[in-house]
Amino acid sequence: MSHALKPFASNAVARLRDQREEEGIRPIQARGWRAPRCRACRVIESHCLCAWRPQVETRSGVCLIMTNKEVFKPSNTGWLIADVVRDNHAFIWSRTEVDQQLLQLLSDPQWQPYLVFPGEYVEPERVTHGVEADSTRRPLFILLDATWTEARKIFRKSPYFDALPILSLLPEKLSRYRLRRSTRSEHLCTAEVAALCLDLAGDVEAASALDAYFDVFSQHYLDAKHQLEMNVATPAHAELMPFVQNAVPVTG
């Protein structure tokens, strides 16, 4: 693997968490919150994920719109996207206040923003199922990183999104997300959605890296939760290895 890549980008979700903590906001003390977690990857320290963070280049950018609770959840997968996609942004959504930096990002001429949302809830003329090739503007995927109920609320009550095209994905496989319960298996988690977006935009390598990173994260997270030894000799780790510069060696 080439070593010409730049150093890791700063993770916008991590910065947002730190900002909320500085403001005095603390995470909900959910089950398992006492377990010591790595500050950088949020996984229980014995199963730290940091050595498996992939390095890839992307033309696309991502912008995560998050709730106050989501930014603190160890199981949040928006964090993984911000690890992989160099141009990553994250904002806390508020119904009454609009972050001016978000508005500036949406109007930045280097970007073609796409709001990722199911097309059946939107006027047909706004919906697209593909990403238009544009040599002057790069795709910026706006992802509502929240529960489905919260995401619908954000969509309805954010007029600054009204002029954006809606990217409606047509996934061919059901969600692999096992970290939280969902009543509908066809609901993809945020990382799975982002991987599909990257693939549509031609960032195929980044899409593959994010998919593999998500699978490795899920395994580390669940193995730690169930007090199983960390096992890096898995197909997911092998798939991720080509995208990792400083990974631990895969051993049997």
TrEMBL record:
Coiled coil: none
EC number: 2.5.1.25
UniProt keyword list: S-adenosyl-L-methionine, Transferase, tRNA processing
GO MF assignments: tRNA-uridine aminocarboxypropyltransferase activity
Keyword field contains Mitochondrion: no
UniProt superkingdom: Bacteria
InterPro entries: DTW (IPR005636), DTWD2/TAPT (IPR039262)
Statement: the UniProt record of this protein carries the keyword Transferase: yes
Top class in the EC scheme: transferase
GO biological process, one term: tRNA processing
Location of the DTW domain: 34-226
Name by which UniProt lists this protein: tRNA-uridine aminocarboxypropyltransferase
Annotated source species: Pseudomonas silesiensis
